[in-house]
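dumping the sequnces here before i forget
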Amino acid sequence: MNGMTALALGYLGMLVALGVWTWTVMSRARDIERRLASTEAALGLNDGNVDPVADDER
Amino acid sequence: MGKRTGRVCLAIGYLGASAALGLAFLWVPSVPNDAFESPEAQRLFYWHVPSAWMAMIAFGVLFVGSALWFMRRSALGWRLHVAGSEAGLATGLMAVWSGCLWGAAEWGVPWDWTDVRLNSFALLTLLALVLVLGRRAQPDGVESRDTFATAGLFGFVLVPFTYIATRIWQIRHPGPVIASGDGGGSLAPEMGALLGFAALSFTVLIVGHLMESVHLTSLEQRLDRLQGKLDAEVTE
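..and the predicted 3d for all of it:
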């Protein structure tokens, strides 16, 4: 394998890794949003932005 | 602001980073054959330097978040700590990996254990790894947050140390090629323009990642809160 082929593979790997990282973060957020929305709707709750540990400390 | 801005930044940043890497491969001129052992490998420059730049931004956010949690018990501070450590790990690995590839091509070895810059940057990435894995292994609570925030605060000392390392000890890693302090850089105009574009694109990408990660942590905390309420109702 010559140097340019190795470099091309390295670049492609980098772009795929960046894409997978970005996609993973976005899909995790979408998944939790869906679960939260359905659970909150079922229970009639909406806590907004809360952090139980920080709230307990105040 | 919020999740929409974060996702727009992610999309624009990813497209920009892809374009920058494509231009680095196809457009930017190579260096003279006598300047490098492996002239084509210098194209890794447009991935390696912006990755290291993103990592420094992420570690800066980790420091600010750790300080806000430690001093004010700020919920946003903790979210920034989480976002900074995760982004610091990902970008740190990108910089280390590209550096190993470049080192293998240029120096004949992927790593040099005697080089201060290489090893201090690896320590920073290791710190981010410890924070990410440690947080997942421990129950979320004040004590564990204090421990991780302290590590984030003291670990930040490595950032300025890494920055000045090649100015003090130039062993394997080259010294600065821009902002070198000697009145001028050594980059050709096309190379400088592409490096600037890559740095800007990667910055937008990391800002998007940080915003999205802060949003994600906030959602996870809401889910925890809801779980706590449900548990309390069941036990009553």
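Chain B touches chain A through 48 residues (CB under 8 Å).
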